[in-house]
């Protein structure tokens, strides 16, 4: 696990975007795993800038998103399909047919999740998985208590996650947030060849500390990344403020990235 500590979220987002751009330039058929929420938006903006500048093309890239709300169609303005279209897919040269988001309206959610896993496997697995982290240390919708071996499935959201998502997507109205979602499992996520996790703000400091320096536990599902052999954690100074070894992490990652 490499911890990259930047002064601002904009600087961290640019470094993360550059890492993805370099990977896609090297392998135009890269398979990306993508995340929603406010955290990755600056990174997606930088990715789009690279396409506009003709530094990279996504025409042969395939993507699989982490999750989707149960009960929301992709046309709903609070769905993650809608979010991805507006914040990334419509701004780059990717084929929409190459982008995949779990179907929140599937008649059989369990079969939908099984199909999703099979699609990822058929594509050769995820090359780079983008993640955010919840204030309680969860990744995707894998709430505390989720098995670290879990696969894509139907999950129930905790009150804290519902509150966070209402703030971000539902104009503060918690009663409008679905209580269930379809989500990649922790085990599924950890099979990605490379992982890029973004964490910004002082409200993520405890989660980052638990993920990086706490024990590996189902009560902080992001802690499973400690055992991944190519996980990159991009933080701003606030989110990294409680790390005991933050100075060492910053020096090591800067050395590896040639900063």
Molecular shape: globular
Number of strands: 10
Order of helices and strands: EHEHEEHEHEEHEHEHEH
Q: Name the helicity range.
A: 25-40%
Q: Figure out the total of helices.
A: 8
When the domains are counted, the total is 1
| Major sheet summary line | 7 strands, parallel
Mean pLDDT: 94
> Segments where pLDDT lies below 50 for 5+ residues?
none
For the largest beta sheet, what order do the strands appear in spatially? 1-10-9-6-2-3-5
Walk me through the structure.
It is a single chain. This protein is α/β, with parallel strands linked by helices and 259 residues long. The chain has one domain: Rossmann fold (3-Layer(aba) Sandwich), CATH 3.40.50.1360. Helices cover 34% and strands 16% of the residues. The protein is built from 8 helices and 10 strands. Strands 1-10-9-6-2-3-5 form a 7-stranded parallel β-sheet, with helices on both faces. Helix 2 (41-52) links the parallel strand 2 (31-34) and strand 3 (62-65). It starts with a strand and ends with a helix.
């Amino acid at each position: 696990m490499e911890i990259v500590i930047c002064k601002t979220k904009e600087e961290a987002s640019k470094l993360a975007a550059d890492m993805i751009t370099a990977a896609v330039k090297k392998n135009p058929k890269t398979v990306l795993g993508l995340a929603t929420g406010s955290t990755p938006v600056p990174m997606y903006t930088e990715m789009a800038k690279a396409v506009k500048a003709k530094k990279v093309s996504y025409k042969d890239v395939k993507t699989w998103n982490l999750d989707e709300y149960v009960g929301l169609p992709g046309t709903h303005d609070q769905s993650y399909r809608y979010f991805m279209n507006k914040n990334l897919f419509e701004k780059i040269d990717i084929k929409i047919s190459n982008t995949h988001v779990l179907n929140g309206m599937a008649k059989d959610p369990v079969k939908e999740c099984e199909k999703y896993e099979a699609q990822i496997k058929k594509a050769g697995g995820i090359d780079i998985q983008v993640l955010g982290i919840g204030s309680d240390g969860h990744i995707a919708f894998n709430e505390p208590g989720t098995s670290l071996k879990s696969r894509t499935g139907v999950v129930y959201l905790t009150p804290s996650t519902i509150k966070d998502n209402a703030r971000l997507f539902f104009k503060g109205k918690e009663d409008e947030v679905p209580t269930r979602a379809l989500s990649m499992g922790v085990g599924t996520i950890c099979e990605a060849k490379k992982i890029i996790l973004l964490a910004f703000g002082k409200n993520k400091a405890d989660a980052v500390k638990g993920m990086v320096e706490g024990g590996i536990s189902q009560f902080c599902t992001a802690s499973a990344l400690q055992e991944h052999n190519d996980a990159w954690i991009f933080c701003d100074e606030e989110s990294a403020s409680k790390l005991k070894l933050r100075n060492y992490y910053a020096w090591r990652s800067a050395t590896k990235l040639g900063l």
